[in-house]
Amino acid sequence: MQGESPALIALGSNLPLGKVDPAGILRRALADMSALGLRPLAVSRFFRTPCFPAGAGPDYVNAAAVVDCGALAPEAVLAALHRIEALHGRERLARWSGRTLDLDLLAMGGQVRPDAATQAAWRDLAVREQALRAPDRLILPHPRMQDRAFVLVPLCDVAPDWRHPLVGLSVAEMAARLPPADRAGVTPI
Predict the structure, then answer these.
(1) Domain for residue 158, yes or no?
(2) What is the DSSP letter of 96?
(3) Which of 19, 83, 121, 146 is deepest in the core (most CB within 10 A)?
(4) pTM of the model
(5) Known catalytic residue at 99
(6) Which domain range does residue 29 map to?
(7) What pLDDT, in 10s, does the model give residues 28-83?
């Protein structure tokens, strides 16, 4: 991995944009990253995953990437990801609703933002509360990455040895702790 703090980014789509299917949207988003100075160093296979939460829409196409962000701060990387989402028709109408494109900044190296206590509070938030509340600032590492097969399974393709700075587990170890049925539901396309 190059750069001072390569970013780990999760990509997802479960709605088409015009005639472009979700996999095509992910391919275009990766190209857009490069155009904005976020250079993908490694990209996982694409996976079909059940919609989260269950029943909220069609299945997703998910992937993960390791991205060289140069000297950009995490907030600038997140702003660039939001611009790319908007280019692909992303509308933030309801939490956890279907979307043409979802780009999540999972981590940048071992950085913790804004601090360990805030990250832990969001990481430990009950699922019912997660559906109702969203952070008002960037939280790194992403507070729910360790709970989601649709994030960890693709991430195992590109960064299995990345270690969560607060949980202390690698991506591969976090994935292995998920229920087998969750991991089995994430299938390569």
Answers:
(1) yes
(2) T
(3) 146
(4) 0.91
(5) yes
(6) 7-188
(7) 999 999 999 999 999 999 999 998 777 778 999 999 999 999 999 999 999 999 99
On whether residue 57 sits in a domain, the answer given is: yes
Out of 104, 113, 123, 157, which one is annotated catalytic? 104
Contact criterion met (CB below 8 Å) for 68 and 41: yes
Domain count, the chain: 1
Q: Is 1 within a domain?
A: no
Residue carrying the six token digits 């908007």:
86
What does 143-162 look like in DSSP terms, one character per residue?
TTGGG-HHHHHHHHHH-TT-
Per-residue pLDDT band at 24 (split at 50, 70, 90): very high
Any idea what the CATH number is for the domain that residue 15 is in? 3.30.70.560
2 occurs within a structural domain = no
Residue 90 annotated to the active site? yes
45 is catalytic: no
